[in-house]
Amino acid sequence: ISGEPFEQMVREIICKPLGMFSTNQNINPLLAPRFVQVYNEGGQPTEPWDFDVLAPCGALRSTLNDMLLYAKANLHPGTDELSKAIELTHKGTFTKDVKISLAWHIITVNGVEYYFHNGGTNGSSSFLAFNAEKNIAVVVLSNAVESTDALGTGILRKLVEQ
Question: Whole-model pTM?
């Protein structure tokens, strides 16, 4: 729609306004030191996947600090256009057997609902969940193929118990 490549559009519309300067589709030499080696299920070093034309389904690479900025933007959206778009992604769209919003799954941990999304490739795994009312966000990033979902939900359980 914009006529720009996906990477450039994400950088201009989302990353720059949120101060996420270590999130990108392609890691250039300046960003490379911020990223670690990733490992496949056999524990062997592997190259991060290159999504090319399927970039919107998981090509972005990010640091923990940038993911925390993204979580904060979802916890406490402002009033600008990006914040309005972020709030729109929280709107529930499906609630039959599972709950889904425009960009998030909605999970329940210890009776508390969280907006949640994860990701994984042959060498990395991610988990992000948040609840604005409780002012809680959890981000787990791993440089291994194994899912981080159990660890992330385990952290949420511990936070809610306190």
Answer: 0.92
Q: How far apart are CA 59 and CA 93, in angstroms?
A: 25
pLDDT tens-digit series, residues 58-94: 788 999 999 999 999 999 999 999 999 999 999 999 9
DSSP 3-state assignment of 8? helix
Report, in this order, helix, strand and coil percent for the chain, each rounded to 5: 35, 25, 40
Dihedral through CA 38, CA 44, CA 50, CA 56, nearest 10?
-50
102-132: per-residue pLDDT in tens?
Answer: 989 999 999 999 999 999 888 999 999 999 9
Region class of 6: left (phi > 0), else alpha (psi between -120 and 50), else beta: alpha
Both tokens of 56, joined, read: 């919107």
- d(C-alpha 61, C-alpha 39), whole Å: 15
Phi/psi of residue 138, nearest 5 degrees = -130, 130
Q: How many CB atoms lie within 10 A of CB 52?
A: 8
| Contacts within 8 Å (CB) and 24+ apart, 17-21 | 17/80, 17/82, 18/69, 18/70, 18/73, 18/82, 19/69, 20/62, 20/66, 20/69, 20/70, 21/66
